[in-house]
Write a structure and sequence with these properties.
mainly alpha; two-stranded antiparallel ribbon; globular
Length: 366
């Protein structure tokens, strides 16, 4: 039997309400972002997004119905399948914006699914070796190797933004371990050396430009620094209450080339102002805190570790996207979960949310 009757009796209406609210606000915001003729016009892009949301609900339902405890047993197989898709992308993938990260003619990005597979693999490890008993750095060698496999393949795809995001998802577990702070000094030095090597040998010229533009947006305002500066203008022009739906000049005059994807939060800030942006961010915060509550109330270690990692898959892209829009982080092409237009990211978020439902509903079935 896929689902116990008691699970349905303890359906998580709070989680459903928070997700539905974000999706609804996202579609309304996307309709304005697409009104200026983005990719065929408002009706086309909104229709496709609504279709993707419908598919996302189905995917989330499947992820919620299959008992998550089976995923611990099949964790290595799921992780291996994700690595296979990443490797396949290197062979037959489509090149988009300098990265060979897409399959099926640019319609599917395996690295988004790989983040979920990574969380399942790490949750499995930390269930077998709980974080609270980890007191030495050598105990993290195995999770480091688990993380390095997908990250290495994503780096080979030349998608540094997603590679960084995948590393951050793995780092979600670090606050749970009990390694002394002094032990991290050597790690910090190695990290700095690694960043220096990455800058010199790993980053392309346009990727270096994005970081330099973050440090000084005015260095090339008409080229590499254009989006960052226009985003700040859009956010600033929103003021307290915003300019009104479909009334933002930066949005409707299309000063933001990717306003329906990476810079969709700029549209929100311009047209709905500080109050509207705060409402959305508070809803995101409530969703993430509810996810941590689900982890805390899980009746088994794997469910708790799985929920923590899933919260990370939603928190980090949201935090990076908002920081990117506000000029607090370099532009690395990370969409805002449940808001930005796009299929792979939305389906990845749907799987994460479905698994959170899975853990939440089964906390009574033990």
């Amino acid at each position: 039997m896929l689902v116990d009757r008691r699970s349905l009796q303890n359906f998580d209406w709070v989680l459903l309400g928070l997700v539905s609210m974000l999706l609804l606000l996202g579609v309304v915001n996307l309709a304005s972002a697409a009104a200026a003729g983005v990719e065929g016009g408002m009706a086309d892009i909104v229709r496709r997004q609504v279709t993707l949301i419908g598919l996302g609900f189905f995917v989330a339902l499947v992820a919620a119905l299959i008992d998550y405890r089976h995923m611990e047993r099949f964790g290595p197989l799921i992780f291996g399948a994700a690595l296979f898709l990443l490797a396949l992308t290197l062979l037959v993938g489509t090149v988009t914006r300098g990265a060979q990260a897409w399959l099926f003619e640019g319609s599917f990005q395996p690295s988004e699914i790989a983040k979920i597979a990574l969380v399942i693999a790490l949750a499995r490890y930390f269930h077998q070796r709980p974080p609270q008993i980890i007191t030495q750095l050598r105990d993290l060698v195995t999770p480091l190797l688990i993380t390095a496999l997908p990250v290495g393949l994503i780096i080979l795809q030349r998608d540094m933004g997603v590679a960084l995001l995948t590393v951050l998802v793995a780092l979600t577990y670090l606050p749970l371990v009990h390694i002394p702070l002094r032990a991290w000094a050597g790690v910090a030095l190695v990290g700095l050396a690694g960043l220096a090597a990455l800058w010199s040998f790993g980053l392309k010229a346009y990727q270096q430009s994005r970081i330099l533009d973050f440090l000084d947006p005015s260095r090339d305002p008409l080229a590499s620094g254009y989006q960052a500066m226009q985003s700040r203008i859009a956010v600033g022009s929103g003021g307290l209450l915003g300019t009104g739906w479909q009334e933002g000049t930066q949005t409707q005059l299309r000063f933001l080339p990717t306003q329906h994807t990476d810079f969709v939060f700029s549209v929100l800030a311009e047209e709905w102002g500080f109050l509207g942006s705060t409402l959305v961010l508070l809803t995101f915060a409530a969703l993430l805190l509810w996810g941590l509550w689900i982890a805390r109330n899980s009746k088994d270690g794997f469910g708790a570790m799985l929920a923590v990692g899933l919260v990370g898959t939603l928190f980090w892209p949201a935090a990076i996207n908002v920081a990117m829009v506000l000029g607090l982080a370099p532009v690395i092409g990370v969409p805002l979960p449940l808001f930005s237009y796009g299929g792979s990211a939305l389906l990845s978020a749907a799987i994460a949310i479905g698994l959170l439902f899975n853990v939440s509903m089964r906390r009574y079935v033990f």
